[in-house]
User: Which sequence fits this backbone?
C-alpha cells in the first residue's frame, strides 16, 4: 500500500495529541496514522511534549491507600483481550473498536451502501460511522453543517477530478460541496466523523439521505 | 459527560495559574531511563516493587493532570489508578525506542480520559481504546526517546513565557483553541500563532528528535 498523500492539518495533529478530540474524531486520525509514518512522527513529537508537561506537573495528593488499592487490583486477572480481530487484508490498519463497530453495527442502507455506527446518535449531533459503498456508485452532491473528517480505510473515490486513496485523510466544512464517486476498482470503505448532518444539495441526495441515515 | 464536567469560572483561572510557579526540573532527565527499566521489569517478571515505584512517581502527576482537565477528585484518582494499572497490563507493549515512559503514560492517561467521557455518555465498560495496531518502528521512531522528555523540558524552559503558557494551557485543557483564546482574552489568531511558533521552536531546539 502506498503512503497517503492527504494528511490532517497541524492543528488536528496537535488536538489529537493533546487529547482534545472525542473518540469518534480521534479514531479517524488514528486510522490515518496507521498508514502514515510522517504523521505518526508528528504525533509522537506532540505526545512527547505532553509527556514532558506531565513530568513537570506538581504531584496531587492521593488517597493514603491508593497504592494498596492498585496492588490489590493487579491480583485480579487482567480482562480478556476482547476483540483483537485483525482488519481484513484489503483495509488499512484500524483501531480495534472501529473494527468491532464495522462487524457489529453494519446495516444495509441502500442498494450498494452499508453504514455502521461508531460513536454518537444516528442523524443528529456529533457522531461517526463507517460507510461502505460499492464500486462505481456516486453519493449525490451534498455539503455539511460543520466539519467532516474522513479517512479511507479501503478502496478509492473520485471527487471533483481528484482521486482519494486508502489512508488519505480528508477534512471538509460547509464551504465544500462534494459529489464523491467510488472508483471502478472495488468497494470503498470510509471512517467518517461529522459535527452535524449532511445537507443535501440535490433531489437525489434528499432521497438518498433517509436511507443512509447520515 | 457530567463526570468530567468542568466547574466553570472557578476552575478556569486555577487551571493554569499554579503551573507557572511549579519548578519544572524537580528530577533529572536521566530518571526516565530508570522508569523504562522498571516497566521492563514489570513485563519480564511482574515486579511489584517496580510497579510501586512507578506508581509513586506517576500516579500523583496523572491525578494532577486529570484535575487540571476538570475531573472531580474521585474520578481523577480513579483514572490515575487505572492509568497505572494499564501500565502494568501493557508493560510488554512498551517500546522504549518509540517513546519515553512519561510520553507513553501521558498517552494512556489521555486515552482513558477520553474513554471515560465517552462511557459517561453511554454507560459502557472500561476499555482502553488506544490499541491501534502499530506499524514497525520506522527510522522516525529510532529517535532517542528515552532522552526526549528531558530535552523537551529543557527546551520548554527556553520558550518565551507567552508561548510556553499557550502550550501548557493547550495540553491541560480539552477546550478548542477558540475557548482558550477567550480565557486569555486574546484573538484566536494570536493563540494559534503562538502555539505554532512554540511547537516549531521546540522542534528546532530538539533538532534530530522531532
Assistant:
Amino acid at each position: 500500500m502506498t503512503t497517503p498523500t492527504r494528511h490532517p492539518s497541524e492543528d488536528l495533529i496537535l488536538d489529537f495529541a493533546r487529547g482534545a478530540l472525542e473518540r469518534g474524531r480521534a479514531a479517524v486520525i488514528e486510522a490515518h496514522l496507521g498508514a502514515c509514518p510522517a504523521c505518526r512522527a508528528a504525533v509522537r513529537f506532540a505526545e512527547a511534549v505532553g509527556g514532558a508537561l506531565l513530568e513537570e506537573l506538581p504531584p496531587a495528593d492521593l488517597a493514603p491507600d491508593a497504592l494498596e488499592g492498585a496492588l490489590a487490583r493487579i491480583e485480579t486477572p487482567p480482562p480478556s483481550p476482547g476483540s483483537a480481530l485483525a482488519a481484513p487484508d484489503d483495509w488499512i490498519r484500524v483501531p480495534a473498536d472501529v473494527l468491532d463497530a464495522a462487524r457489529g453495527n453494519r446495516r444495509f442502507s441502500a442498494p450498494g451502501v452499508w453504514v455502521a455506527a461508531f460513536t454518537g446518535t444516528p442523524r443528529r449531533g456529533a457522531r461517526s460511522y463507517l460507510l461502505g459503498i460499492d464500486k462505481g456508485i456516486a453519493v449525490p452532491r451534498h455539503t455539511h453543517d460543520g466539519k467532516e473528517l474522513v479517512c479511507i480505510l479501503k478502496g478509492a473515490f473520485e471527487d471533483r477530478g481528484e482521486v482519494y486513496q486508502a489512508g488519505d485523510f480528508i477534512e471538509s466544512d460547509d464551504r465544500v460541496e462534494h459529489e464523491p464517486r467510488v472508483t471502478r476498482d472495488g468497494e470503498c470503505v470510509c471512517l467518517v466523523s461529522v459535527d452535524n448532518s449532511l445537507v443535501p444539495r440535490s433531489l437525489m441526495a434528499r432521497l438518498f439521505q433517509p436511507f443512509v441515515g447520515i | 459527560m457530567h463526570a468530567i464536567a468542568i466547574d466553570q469560572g472557578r476552575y478556569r483561572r486555577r487551571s493554569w495559574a499554579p503551573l507557572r510557579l511549579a519548578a519544572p526540573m524537580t528530577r533529572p532527565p536521566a530518571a526516565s531511563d530508570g522508569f523504562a527499566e522498571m516497566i521492563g521489569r514489570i513485563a519480564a517478571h511482574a515486579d511489584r516493587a517496580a510497579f510501586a515505584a512507578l506508581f509513586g512517581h506517576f500516579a500523583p502527576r496523572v491525578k494532577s493532570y486529570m484535575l487540571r482537565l476538570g475531573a472531580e477528585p474521585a474520578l481523577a484518582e480513579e483514572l490515575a489508578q487505572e492509568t497505572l494499572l494499564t501500565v502494568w497490563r501493557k508493560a510488554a507493549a512498551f517500546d522504549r525506542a518509540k517513546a519515553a515512559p512519561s510520553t507513553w503514560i501521558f498517552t494512556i492517561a489521555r486515552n482513558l480520559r477520553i474513554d471515560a467521557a465517552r462511557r459517561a455518555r453511554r454507560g459502557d465498560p472500561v476499555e482502553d481504546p488506544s490499541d491501534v495496531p502499530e506499524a514497525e518502528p520506522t527510522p522516525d521512531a529510532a529517535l532517542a526517546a528515552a532522552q526526549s522528555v528531558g530535552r523537551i523540558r529543557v527546551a520548554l524552559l527556553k520558550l518565551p513565557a507567552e508561548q510556553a503558557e499557550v502550550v501548557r494551557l493547550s495540553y491541560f485543557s480539552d477546550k478548542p483553541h477558540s475557548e482558550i483564546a477567550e480565557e486569555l482574552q486574546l484573538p484566536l489568531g494570536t493563540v494559534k500563532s503562538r502555539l505554532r511558533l512554540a511547537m516549531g521552536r521546540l522542534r528546532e531546539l530538539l533538532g534530530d528528535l522531532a
Notes: DSSP finds nine helices and no strands in chain B. Chain B touches chain A through 86 residues (CB under 8 Å).
